[in-house]
Structure formats: structure tokens, C-alpha cells
Design brief:
heterodimer; A: mainly alpha; two-stranded antiparallel ribbon; 30 helices; elongated; B: mainly alpha; 4 strands; about 65% helix; globular
């Protein structure tokens, strides 16, 4: 099969099936089967279909064309790429590697093929290990490091194999183009499989979980004005409608071929999450939580928009991949290849004209490159920082990282399957996914920001999880904390570690959530203080959840390759942290936070499990009515438990393994040790270095020891009860208050942002009414007054006055003349004579003065 | 005199409502329903006529992908002042004409609850439609002005007679604001008129201005000669003046032709560059006056306070028209008149324009957040959304530092135009949906609503869809315009870009909060709860097309851009070329070394 055409087709249909289901349910959901039950089947069929297509894409198309290298260090995509010179396929053939790089590659691969992999590798890396630190003092420029790295056995990696193209164009302006397209590499395919698999489980589970929506639903949490609980028609089909829309949007993010499309679907998953959190629209808490989720996400999107603007205005493209014509010439270059060119040995370097543009307001920044006279283009570096941190802001919002983590725990107002799918496994992972996808664009400084964000998040969230008693909230904070781990890993340069944890976490966390949902379904409460001893009543739930707990704490035999899925991914992260801290001792918190986090994780997870399933029932009434969930709900639990256990394993007899698959997508140019440009002391180790025994050993031991200690503590307190939790609470009252009140984030935001915002809004309204309208009214009044003055002065006095005056004058004249008319003949004759004399006198006078008469 | 002549066809589109209004006025006896049906039929006929422009191959049609003015015609009107009856249609006006005709139908359908003085209402409504369509089609500045005023009076009465309790106040406020703007506009028109000189245009420009018509195969010079000999009053004047060979003795031939004025504004040694007052040129002052006039209509902060009052008091259909069409006239005026006729002033004042846009976006959004009156909230959201339009028009990034690359500005202007159409759809929809519940419960207090989803599910579904279109959700029309504008701003000004991006948070805030207060919640506890019945078929038929359009435009923006973009792009390209001629690198006290810009230019090529 020709992957360049089959892969997009398969994944496009996998992507569109849920959309079709959404539209169908939107219009006909109510009439599908009894009480809309058919809607559930339709949605489930759609997502299972999508899953089948995704797995076909993976096993039928991707893997046959891109066989996995069997070593952990199989970074070279050349392996899978023979003879696919398709024009839409932009494999690693495209960029002619430098001869040094080629040589290094060959040498390196010679080593991997042989059995002496580890030694060669280690020697090379040990050498590398020493060199950068020593070099740091001598050389500032990136290029020199690059060439030096090439001369070592560790060449920088090239563009991974991918397929990209456009479905259709949204808008184009000259060379600027916004389109709906695809970018498919092994990460895309793997994400499709993961999302579809988990979503299928969630759909099955929801068929059972949501069954009370099939009939009239009594919402005991909503009391009407007449004191009765709310009764309303069930909304079974609506739930599946939203789930379908969500799956469509999530697939959209994963398949997206450019940043604009990511943003489109980014917002769409946001709105799905809004609908799903606010599913119980009658509950004020639910609708408030939904608003909070969307608005907090928008805060992140604001940053993301800034990042997008910065890139768009300087690079003029949003595409991830390059487009080439039949001859292999670039017709359009994507972000990655513009920023990491083959000439620069795939090191991140701002494109030549990348600077702050549109600088009528800041003209000096425009030509920073020229002015500074050197090649490091500091303005460009700053722009990259803005772009990277901006894009990362979006990830912070979606993945509920500090300081925007506040929405996720509230999002637990939604039905549990939603929490499992949207708010643990997939949507919140979209932030990590995007950070991973955008990894080649992040400069070391941005990665440092990411690392610290993850680090702070993982600790804060874990501490809150210790004190929470709502079973779903514990898991919510645990999710936040685990997402912090992933971000930390990415920030430390551990791309595969971070993405791998995304996959393992997706399985075990959706398992944990669905188990908690099963518990809630069985005992009708979220409150762990009313549970206890439930393992006897609901064994399947209890033991599958135990698998989940063991997976999340990373249970495994230390320093071996045997363990639960979390063991592999979490250890990889801690190894990377050790490797990073080795080169950057000043950033020691990044080393110890994940270790401390492992302890807390183990503690709160087992606190949860013990409080729920072990010990004696705390509420006998609830215990008596508790029951195991129906098979349609437990079966997905078992399936997910299997994956939570084994997703990190290698399929026996093959090299099929998630990390190997991910390694095929390793972003271009991220396998070399790099240095900060703005922070020259910052060194980002390449990821393979972390697998050194030197780091693996202490990291593995630290991870195991802390997790074991956490587990032990939880056991001591909550199972054996050597220590009384209430006493502990009293003893550490102040700290407990901090954790219990979630570090007062909500209150702080309320006081610092929401309240001033609303106040400003009120002021602005008052300004409109008070100032602007007053000016208008004042002007109107002035005009009116002016008109009155005009009326009084001009009209009444002058105009009217003269008119009236003439009238009066005429009248007076008449009156006066009347006096003449006396009736006395003598007076008349007298007047006649005088007049005649006067007339004659006048006539003769006129005759004299008028000439020619 | 057949329909295939532009003069007949376009005149019919514009004046059919006015003729119908006259006929209605003469025919004395019709019952209310018959009156409304007749009026609705007329608006539908106008819509059919305007949609007929899509029909390719007929004598008159609108061709997508053509940048130039199409289907133009000019007839002498008042020859002694060179005033012509001159109309035409291009990618900028075409979508607005369709939008106007479409919204008129919906607004008339939404007028069924009107029971007071129905006949007068229908007559004024039809006159209003004539005014609106005419403004978008007129290419003679005098005609434009007359139609602008024609639309003003019916609106005044429609608010002042059929409005709410404070209708007189709102109507007079609307009238005075707009009148203030039109007086400034009139002064500017006269300033431009008396400084214009048609004889300065060469043959090709005369053709471009729609004065001289060419026949296929004819050179422009021949066409000009043929026109000069044609004996029309204007041609005779032109011939008389150009017969004088001494340029110094020639008297100017003034014109109101908008296309001709555009070319004069952009030519070398433009006649509008003459210094007028306070060291500023004619076009500088004209731009200020015109811009104020148009920006009142948009409306932008601080000249916006008529809008909330007018909307709150106006009856539902008039609010739809007001938000959907009238506000667009402001944006249309800026893009059609301000920028092309006064480029020099526009270039100087570009930052002010953008600032006004951003200020309106932020101001409107904050104000919307604080409202408790549903309609007032929607009105302020209009202020905010129309701010995007002003911002998008103003982002003059085709400057020396960017190598005069017009693409980002094209994106901004196209985004602004898209936003106008999108806002026409979403805001008309929002006002209609507010009207639907107002008709039932007779109040608009956001805090007294709640729980409408349970009582009116279909209505609430539509409402949420249309409000999300206003929120700028991807897949709906509001998103495209906003994102195009916002992405275009950075290249012009980073500060404004950051502020404009921040508005997305506020928009989400006020829209979601309103949705929560109105549609979500357990039950409706406000007054007249018993009247909350599901929406009627008539209401559904008004709201559903708006939502469908919102989705179509949101999912497939080329459905609009294909028609609009060529004209917009060409205008921006011309202005970019003008910038390159008049502001060569190094003249602005900006970065002398524009290497970055040149590289950008070469890459974009």
C-alpha cells in the first residue's frame, strides 16, 4: 500500500466518523431507538470504526513501511524509508546531510547494529559529557558546538519521516496560507490509536454509566423553588453527541498539519469540554465550572495567539512540514525546516529575517541583527522566546499547568466518563502533545520555562491531592501533577520520555477515573470519607484500580526492565532530570522535584485506594447498598488494566514498543546537546545521554525508594493505622490548611483578576453613562440653551422687534393721522392751500435742478 | 430597458422597496397581515433579485474572481454640478448587498409581533431598505450622501415610534449622533469636490473611473475620444476645458465620482495634497471628517453611546437591521471612501485608526461584561466586534521596513470585511433571539432569566450556536474574521496585537456568563414564566438560516472570500504601491537599514 495516499485517507475517515455520528445524533438522536439508546450505539460504532481505521493505519501501513529499529537509540529514520520518493512524502532523504553528519550516522549505526551498542554509546557520550562543560567557557557560538557534536559519534538527527498535505484552504493572501491539512508521522498514528482505544473503552463504559439518563432523571443535587428535587427528561443521546464531537475535535488536533488548524480544533475540544463539564446544566456548580474551564483555557489561548502571531508574522507560514514538487524542490517550507535548516545542522536558529517587525513603535528592534553585527540575531532569539513561551501558554491552559491549573479539578462536575476521557487521558494531554509537536521550535530558554512550570505544577498539585477527600478530585490533582511530569520531561529535553509518559498516563489514568466512576456508581457518593472496605463488594473495580495505582506510582523491579507501564516512563523522566541536573547543577530543583513528586504520588494514590477499598466501611448504609458495576462497565476496566500494565512493554519477539515508535518521530535536530543563546550557561543534554548507567542507576534507585516510601507511609497511616490521620492533620494544621484550600489559588485569582475585571467593567459602563453621555447631554443642553439665547436676542429683539416696530409705527402713524381728520372745513381748505403751495414750490425747484427740461 | 441592463437591474434592486412603499401609501385599505405579507414579499423579491447576480452568463451578473467594479452604469442626474446617477458593484459591496437583502427578509419576518401603525411601519421599513442598498451600490459621492440620509430618517421614526419606553430619547440620540457625522461628511464631500479635477485623469483612469466605456478591442485613448465626442453634458464640459491648451488657464472640472476621486487621491501630486488649514492638507481634514462620520456609525469608542440606547429601545427587527446592516455602513465607508481617497492622511493616522479599533474592542467587551440588560449586553458586544473591523482596516503594514509587502494588510482588510459579514449574521441573530424571549416575558434582565433550556430546547440550542458564533468559536463565522484580523496586527504593532488578542478572554467571559444566566440553570423564576412556550415555526425559520450561514462561513470561508477577496486585495495592493511611491525607504525616520524588510519581500515573492 502506498502510505502517502492511504495514511491520510485512513486517518481522515477515522477523524470524520465521529463527526458523522455527531451530526446524526444532533438531528435524530431523540428518535434513535428507545429513549435515544441508539445514539449510544451509533457513537460507539463510530469510535470503534475510527479505532479500527487507526490501527489499520498503524499496523497495515505505517509499520510495514517504517519498520521499527530494535534499539532504544534508533533515531535514524532512514531505516524505514527505502524507495518512497513520493512528492508528498518528506522523509529524511530530502535534506542532504553534511558529509560529517552522514559519516557520523553511518558510524553510529554500525555501532547500534553490533552488540557493543551500549559501550560505544557510552564512550561517546562520556566524552560528550565532559566536553560541553569545558567548551562552554571557550566558545559561545552554537555553530561550533554543532560541528563538534558531529565529530562525535552523535550526529544531530534529521527530519523524521512524515506525510503532509492540505485538505482545503481556508484563506490565502499571496504566500500566506491558512489551511486544513494533515501532518502524519508515527506520533500522529500512535496518538490516533491511543485516543481511539481509550475513547472506545469510555464509550462502552458510558453506555452503562449513563443509563439513568435513559428515563426521566431526578437530579438530587438541584432543589427547585418548591423544595422538590429537579425532575427532567433524560439526555442520554446528548451525552454521546458531545462525546462524538469531542473525539472528532481531538483527532483534529492530532492530525493537524499546521498551527492554525491546531488552534481551530484546540478551541473545539475546549467547547466540547465546556459542554461535557456543564452536562448537568441545571446545576449551578456545573455551569460555573464549565465557564471557568473555558475562560481559563482562553487565557492560555491568549498566550498561544501571541505565539502564533509572532511566528506567523516572521515566518509567514503555520505548516509543520515542507511541501515539495516532483523534483524534490521545496515549494513551501514549514516552520520546522525554516528554523532548523540542514545548513545549520538542524540546530534551532532564527530565520534570517526573523525579528520584531511592524515596529513603528519599536524601530530599534527591527534590525537588531544588523546592528549587533554578529550572526546570533538576538532579536530573533527573543522572538523565538516569545513565540515558544506563547505557544506553551496554550499548552499550560489546556494541560492545566500552574498557574492555570485551577479549572481541571472543578471540571470534575461533569459525568465520570468525561473526566476519564476528556480530563485525564486525551484533551488535557493535548497540551503536552502540542508541546511535543512544537518541540523543534522551543529554544533552550523556552524549555527551561516549560521545565519549571512542570516542576512547580507537579509539586503543588500533588500536595493538594494529599488532602482532598473527593475521590475524583484526588484523581484530578493527580492528573495535573502527572501532566506536570510530562511538561518537565519535555522541558528537560526528554522528548520521548515526556511523550511516552503521555501514553502510559493516558491508559492508567483513564483506568483510575473509570474505576472511581464505578465506585461512585456503586455507592452514590464522591466522598471517600464515606467509603471503605469496598473491595469485597466490588472486586473487579478494586483490583483493576490497584493495577492503575501501581502503574501510576511506577511500580517495577528497580534497574530491570520489568514493571508496570508507569515504571518505564516515570523512570525515564527522572533519568532525564538527573542527566540535566548533572550539566546544570544550578537547576537542582528540577532534579529533586520529580523524585519528591514520586513519593507524594505513591502516598496519595494508596491513600485513595486504602480509604476506598480497604479497612472497614465508614458508612454502613452506603456499604450495604454498594454493588459491582455491570459488565459493560467492568469490561473496559479490565481492558484498560491490561494496557496500564503492559503498554510500556516490548511485544515479545519483535521490536514493537511504544518508545521505539515514538523514537521514529523524534523532532528534527533534538539529538544534540544544545546551549542557550540568551542564557549561555544553560545546557540541554540530548536525551540518549540519560540512559547512561551513570544516571540510570541513581535515578532508578531514587524513584523506587521514594515510591516505596510513599506507599509505606500510606500503608502505615491508612491501612495499619499506626498513625491517626486526624492527629496528623492537627499536628500539621497550617500546612494542611494550605493544601486543603488548594493554595488559595481560586481566592487569589478572584481577588486579583476577576473582581478588578468586573469592577473595571462597571467603571467603563459608568464612564459611558456618566461621562460620555453627560458630555452629549451637556452639548445638547448647551445647544438648546444657545438656541434659546438666539431666540431671545436675535429673533425676539431684532427680527421680531423690527417687524413689530414697523407694525407699531404704522399703527401709530394711523392714529396720529386720524387727528388730522377733524371734520372742520376751514382746516381742510387751509391744508389744501398749504399743500398746493408746497407742491408748486417743490415742482419749480425740481425744474431748476434737473437739467435739460 | 431590459433587466439585463445594469441600470435597470441595480436600480430595481435599490428602488423596488421605495416604489412599493409609495404604492402601499397610496392604496388605502389593507389589513395588517396583508400589509406585512406584501412587505415581506417585496423584501423577498429584492433578495431574489440580488441573488440573481450570482447567475452567471446572463446580461448582468457578478463574477467571482474579478477585482474591478462590475455592472457599472452612469446616467446624468444634475449635470451642472457633474452629479451622476452612478452605481456599480464589486467584491466589497456585493457581499454587503446580499447581506442587506437577506437580513431585510428576516427582519420583516421578525416584524410580525408589531401591531402598531402597521402601514406606516411597512412604508418606513421599505424606505430604509432602499437607503441601505443604495448606500452600498452608489458610486457617486452625492448620491451616496443622499441615500445615507434617506436611510437615517426612517430609522429615526422606526425607533422613535415603535420603540420601548425611552424611545424618543434613543431616537433623538441616534439621530443627532448620526447627523453630526453626516454634516462632517457633507463638508468633507464638498471639500473633495471643489478640489477635484477630472481633467487630471488620463484615458485609462477615466475608464477605471467608469466614466468612459470601452468596447472590446478599442484602445482607451480611442474610447476617451469617442466619449468626448459623444455630446453628453459632462463630455461637453470635458471637451471645452481640455480644448484650452494652456494648463494654467484651465478651470478644473469637479466631480463627485467616487472612483475618480480615489484615483485622484492616489495619483502623483494629488489635488487633495493642497494645504488647507493648520498646515494640514485637504485630504487630511477630509479624512478626519469622513472618519468621524463613519466611525459614529460603526460605532467606535468614544462615539458609541447611541448604540446601546438605540438597540435597547428599538423593536427587535429594527435592532436586527441596525446591528446587521447599519453598522456595516461605517466600515464600508472607511474601506470604500476614507482609505482610497485620502491615502496620505490614512497613512499618517493609521495608528489612530488601529487604536480606535482596539479601544472599542476592549471597551465594548468590558462594558458588555457589566450589563444586566440582555439587549444592552449584545449591543456592547457589537461595539467590541466592530472594533475588529476598524482595526483590520487600519493595519497598514505595507511600509518600508516590511518591503511594502501587502499580504498582512490584505489579511487584515479581508478579515475586517469578513468580520462585517460575520457580525451581520451573528449580531442580527443574537438580537432576534433576545427578541424572542422578550416577546414572551417582557423583560430583559439577565439576572431574572435562567433555565430556558428546559422550556425552549430548540430555541436554546439555536441561541447557544449563534452566541458561540459571536464568541468566535472555530467552525462558526465569527472566528474567521477575528483570527484574520488578529494575526495581521502583529506585523503592524506588537502592542496592539497583544491587546487585541487579550479580548478573546473577555469575549468568552461575557458570552458564557450570559448563556449561563439565561439558558442554563434549574428553572425560570422571573416574571411571566407561564408564557415561555417553545419557538414557533416562524421564529425557527428566521433563526435557523442565520445559524446555517454562520456554520457555512465558518467551515468554508472561501465561500465568501472568493467573491470578496480580489477587490479587497487589489485595493490594498494599490495602496501598498502608493506607499512605496510616496514613502520610500528612509523617509520616515524609521530604520534606515531595511534589510529584514527586503528579505521578507523576496521571500514572499
Amino acid at each position: 500500500m502506498e502510505p502517502a495516499s492511504t495514511l491520510p485517507t485512513l486517518l481522515m475517515w477515522a477523524w470524520l466518523l465521529p463527526l458523522i455520528s455527531f451530526v446524526a445524533i444532533l438531528f435524530f438522536g431523540k428518535h434513535m431507538g428507545p429513549h435515544g439508546k441508539g445514539a449510544a450505539y451509533l457513537a460507539t460504532v463510530a469510535i470503534v470504526g475510527a479505532g479500527l481505521l487507526s490501527f489499520t493505519a498503524l499496523f497495515g501501513v505505517w509499520l510495514p513501511n517504517h519498520p521499527l529499529a530494535d534499539a532504544a537509540h534508533a533515531s535514524d529514520p532512514l531505516h524505514g524509508n527505502h524507495g518512497i520518493p513520493d512528492d508528498s512524502h518528506n522523509g529524511s532523504h530530502s535534506d542532504a546531510p553534511t558529509s560529517a553528519g552522514k559519516h557520523a550516522h553511518r558510524a553510529y549505526h554500525g555501532a547500534t547494529d553490533g552488540g557493543a551498542l551500549r559501550n560505544t554509546q557510552r564512550d561517546a557520550q562520556l566524552a560528550l559529557n565532559i566536553q560541553p562543560v569545558a567548551l562552554l567557557a571557550e566558545h559561545g557560538s552554537l555553530a561550533e558546538h554543532g560541528s563538534l557534536n558531529d565529530s562525535q559519534a552523535h550526529a544531530n538527527n534529521k527530519t523524521p519521516p512524515y506525510y503532509n498535505g492540505d485538505f482545503y484552504t481556508l484563506a490565502a493572501f499571496g504566500p500566506l496560507k491558512l489551511s486544513i491539512g494533515y501532518y502524519i508521522d508515527s506520533l500522529t498514528v500512535a496518538m490516533f490509536c491511543m485516543v481511539a482505544l481509550i475513547a472506545s473503552c469510555v464509550h462502552f463504559y458510558a453506555i452503562g454509566y449513563m443509563h439513568d439518563e435513559l428515563h426521566e432523571f431526578t437530579d438530587s443535587e438541584v432543589t427547585l423553588a418548591d423544595g422538590q428535587p429537579l425532575k427532567r427528561p433524560g439526555r442520554y443521546h446528548r451525552f454521546f453527541q458531545y462525546l462524538s464531537l469531542f473525539c472528532f475535535s481531538m483527532f483534529g488536533i492530532v492530525i493537524a498539519g499546521n498551527m492554525a488548524m491546531v488552534f481551530v480544533f484546540w478551541e473545539l475540544v475546549g467547547i466540547c469540554s465546556y459542554f461535557l463539564i456543564g452536562f448537568y446544566i441545571e446545576r449551578k456548580t456545573a455551569s460555573t465550572a464549565a465557564n471557568k474551564a473555558f475562560i481559563v483555557n482562553r487565557v492560555g489561548d491568549f498566550g498561544m495567539l501571541i505565539g502564533m502571531m509572532a511566528l506567523w508574522s516572521s515566518l509567514g507560514t503555520f505548516s509543520f512540514g515542507d511541501t515539495k514538487d516532483a523534483d524534490g524542490k521545496f515549494t513551501e517550507r514549514g516552520i520546522f525546516s525554516l528554523l532548523r535548516t540542514a545548513e545549520n545542522d538542524y540546530h534551532l536558529k532564527p530565520a534570517g529575517d526573523m525579528a520584531f517587525e511592524g515596529h513603528r513603535i519599536m524601530p530599534t528592534d527591527s534590525d537588531g541583527e544588523v546592528q549587533s553585527g554578529d550572526s546570533d540575531n538576538r532579536a530573533g532569539q527573543w522572538l523565538l522566546l516569545v513565540a515558544g513561551v506563547g505557544i506553551f501558554c496554550g499548552c499550560v491552559g489546556k494541560s492545566a499547568q500552574f498557574p492555570l491549573h485551577v479549572w481541571l479539578p472543578d471540571a470534575m462536575e461533569g459525568p465520570t466518563p468525561v473526566s476519564a476521557l476528556v480530563h485525564s487521558a486525551t484533551m488535557v494531554a493535548a497540551g503536552v502533545y502540542l508541546a511535543g509537536r512544537f518541540f523543534p521550535v522551543f529554544s533552550p530558554e523556552v524549555l527551561l520555562v516549560i521545565a519549571y512550570t512542570g516542576c512547580i505544577t507537579l509539586v503543588i498539585a500533588a500536595t493538594i491531592a494529599i488532602t482532598a477527600t473527593d475521590i475524583k478530585r484526588v484523581l484530578a490533582y493527580s492528573t495535573v501533577s502527572q501532566l506536570g511530569y510530562m511538561m518537565l520531561a519535555l522541558g528537560l529535553g526528554g522528548w520521548v520520555a515526556g511523550m511516552f509518559h503521555l501514553f502510559t498516563h493516558a491508559f492508567f489514568k483513564s483506568l483510575l477515573f473509570m474505576c472511581s466512576g464505578s465506585v461512585i456508581h456503586g455507592v452514590h457518593t464522591n466522598d471517600m470519607t464515606e467509603m471503605g472496605g469496598l473491595r469485597k463488594k466490588m472486586p473487579v473495580t478494586a483490583y483493576t484500580m490497584l493495577v492503575g495505582c501501581l502503574a501510576i506510582i511506577g511500580a517495577g523491579i528497580p534497574l530491570s526492565t520489568i514493571g508496570f507501564s508507569g515504571y518505564y516512563s516515570k523512570d525515564a523522566i527522572i533519568e532525564q532530570a538527573f542527566s540535566f541536573a548533572d550539566l546544570n547543577p544550578v537547576h537542582w530543583p528540577l532534579k529533586w522535584a520529580p523524585v519528591a513528586g514520586a513519593l507524594i504520588t505513591a502516598f496519595y494514590m494508596f491513600r485513595l485506594w486504602y480509604m476506598t477499598f480497604a479497612g472497614k466501611p465508614r458508612n454502613q448504609h452506603r456499604y450495604d447498598h454498594a454493588h459491582e458495576s455491570p459488565r459493560v462497565m467492568t469490561l473496559p476496566l479490565v481492558v484498560l488494566a491490561v494496557f496500564a500494565l503492559g503498554i510500556g512493554w516490548t511485544v515479545p519477539g519483535t521490536s514493537l514498543k511504544v518508545t521505539n515508535l515514538l523514537e521514529q518521530s523524534r523532532p528534527v535536530g533534538t539529538l544534540a546537546t544544545t546551549h542557550g543563546e540568551l542564557l549561555p550557561s544553560l545546557v540541554l543534554p540530548d536525551e540518549h545521554r540519560s540512559h547512561e548507567w551513570e544516571f540510570r542507576k541513581p535515578a532508578g534507585i531514587a524513584a523506587f525508594a521514594t515510591a516505596a516510601l510513599g506507599l509505606l507511609l500510606a500503608t502505615v497511616v491508612y491501612l495499619w493505622r499506626f498513625l491517626n490521620p486526624d492527629e496528623l492533620k492537627q499536628r500539621f494544621r497550617s500546612i494542611h490548611a494550605v493544601f486543603w484550600n488548594k493554595w488559595w489559588f481560586d481566592e487569589i485569582y478572584g481577588a486579583l483578576i476577576v473582581a478588578p475585571g468586573l469592577l473595571l467593567a462597571k467603571w467603563i459602563t459608568k464612564f459611558d453613562l456618566g461621562i460620555i453621555d453627560s458630555i452629549i447631554h451637556g452639548t445638547a443642553a448647551t445647544c438648546k440653551g444657545g438656541a434659546k439665547v438666539v431666540d431671545a436676542v436675535l429673533d425676539r429683539t431684532l427680527v421680531d422687534g423690527s417687524a413689530n416696530g414697523m407694525a407699531r409705527g404704522t399703527w401709530d402713524l394711523g392714529l396720529w393721522l386720524r387727528k388730522i381728520q377733524t371734520g372742520s372745513l376751514r382746516q381742510y381748505v387751509m391744508l389744501l392751500v398749504i399743500s398746493t403751495v408746497l407742491l408748486f414750490a417743490a415742482a419749480s425747484y425740481l425744474q431748476q435742478i434737473i437739467p435739460g427740461q | 430597458m431590459t433587466l439585463s441592463e445594469p441600470a435597470v437591474y441595480l436600480s430595481l434592486i435599490v428602488f423596488l422597496p421605495a416604489i412599493a412603499a409609495l404604492v402601499l401609501a397610496i392604496f388605502p385599505r389593507l389589513n395588517d397581515d396583508a400589509l406585512k405579507l406584501t412587505t415581506l414579499a417585496i423584501t423577498i423579491a429584492v433578495l431574489v433579485l440580488s441573488l440573481g447576480l450570482f447567475r452567471q452568463g446572463a446580461g448582468i451578473d457578478f463574477q467571482a474572481g474579478v477585482a474591478e467594479m462590475q455592472n457599472t452604469f452612469n446616467l446624468e442626474w444634475i449635470p451642472s454640478f457633474g452629479i451622476q446617477y452612478f452605481m456599480g458593484i464589486d467584491g466589497i459591496s456585493f457581499p454587503l448587498v446580499i447581506l442587506t437583502a437577506f437580513l431585510s427578509v428576516l427582519a420583516m419576518a421578525a416584524s410580525w409581533p408589531i401591531t402598531k401603525h402597521v402601514k406606516a411601519y411597512c412604508i418606513l421599513f421599505l424606505l430604509l431598505e432602499t437607503g441601505m442598498l443604495g448606500v452600498f451600490l452608489a458610486l457617486d459621492f452625492f448620491l451616496f450622501y443622499v441615500l445615507w440620509e434617506v436611510m437615517l430618517l426612517p430609522m429615526y421614526f422606526l425607533i422613535g415610534v415603535w420603540g420601548g419606553p425611552r424611545r424618543e430619547y434613543a431616537a433623538i440620540k441616534f439621530f443627532l449622533y448620526t447627523l453630526l457625522g453626516s454634516i462632517g461628511m457633507l463638508i468633507a464631500i464638498l471639500m473633495l469636490y471643489f478640489n477635484s479635477d477630472l481633467t487630471r485623469l488620463d484615458a485609462e483612469q477615466m475608464v477605471n473611473a467608469g466614466i468612459v466605456k470601452t468596447t472590446p478591442g478599442q484602445s482607451v485613448e480611442d474610447a476617451l475620444q469617442a466619449w468626448t465626442d459623444s455630446g453628453s453634458p459632462l463630455a461637453n464640459d470635458y471637451a471645452d476645458i481640455t480644448a484650452e491648451s494652456d494648463l494654467a488657464k484651465r478651470r478644473p472640472l469637479h466631480t463627485f465620482n467616487i472612483l475618480a476621486l480615489q484615483q485622484m487621491g492616489q495619483m502623483e501630486n494629488s489635488p487633495f495634497d493642497k494645504e488647507m488649514w493648520a498646515g494640514k492638507s485637504v485630504q487630511w481634514w477630509a479624512f478626519i471628517l469622513l472618519f468621524i462620520g463613519f466611525v459614529i456609525k460603526v460605532p467606535s469608542v468614544p462615539l458609541h453611546t447611541w448604540l446601546p440606547d438605540a438597540h435597547v429601545e428599538a423593536p427587535t427587527p429594527i435592532s436586527m437591521i441596525l446591528a446587521g446592516v447599519l453598522l456595516k455602513m461605517g466600515g464600508y465607508g472607511i474601506i470604500r471612501i476614507c482609505y482610497p481617497i485620502c491615502p496620505d492622511a490614512a497613512y499618517d493616522l493609521a495608528y489612530c485608526v488601529c487604536f480606535v479599533g482596539v479601544l472599542s474592542m476592549v471597551w465594548g467587551a468590558f462594558a458588555a461584561l457589566a450589563q444586566t440588560d440582555f439587549k444592552r449586553m449584545v449591543a456592547y458586544s457589537s461595539v467590541s466586534h466592530m472594533g475588529y473591523v476598524v482595526l483590520g482596516l487600519g493595519v497598514w503594514s505595507a511600509v518600508a521596513d516590511t518591503g511594502y509587502s501587502p499580504y498582512y494588510w490584505q489579511m487584515g482588510v479581508n478579515g475586517a470585511m469578513f468580520q462585517m459579514i460575520a457580525h451581520g449574521i451573528s449580531s442580527a441573530g443574537m438580537f432576534f433571539l433576545v427578541g424572542v424571549v422578550y416577546d414572551r416575558v417582557h423583560h430583559r434582565n439577565l439576572n431574572e432569566y435562567g433555565g430556558l433550556f428546559a422550556k425552549m430546547p430548540v430555541y436554546s440550542g439555536l441561541a447557544v450556536g449563534i452566541f458561540f458564533a459571536g464568541l468566535g468559536l472555530p467552525g462558526l463565522c465569527g472566528f474567521v474574521g477575528e483570527v484574520l484580523v488578529v494575526l495581521a496586527v502583529w506585523r503592524y504593532s506588537i502592542v496592539l496585537a497583544v491587546i487585541s488578542a487579550a479580548v478573546v478572554i473577555l469575549t468568552a467571559g461575557y458570552i458564557l456568563w450570559a448563556i449561563q444566566r439565561v439558558y442554563l440553570g434549574a428553572e425560570y423564576t422571573g416574571p411571566h414564566g407561564e408564557n415561555l412556550t417553545p419557538i414557533t415555526m416562524r421564529e425557527l425559520l428566521i433563526a435557523a438560516p442565520l445559524l446555517v450561514l454562520a456554520i457555512v462561513l465558518g467551515v468554508y470561508p472561501p465561500s465568501l472570500l472568493n467573491y470578496m477577496q480580489p477587490s479587497v486585495d487589489r485595493q490594498v495592493e494599490r495602496l501598498a504601491e502608493w506607499t512605496e511611491r510616496n514613502h520610500p525607504p528612509g523617509t520616515e525616520g524609521q530604520a534606515l537599514n531595511d534589510e529584514g524588510g527586503h528579505m521578507a519581500a523576496t521571500r514572499s515573492d
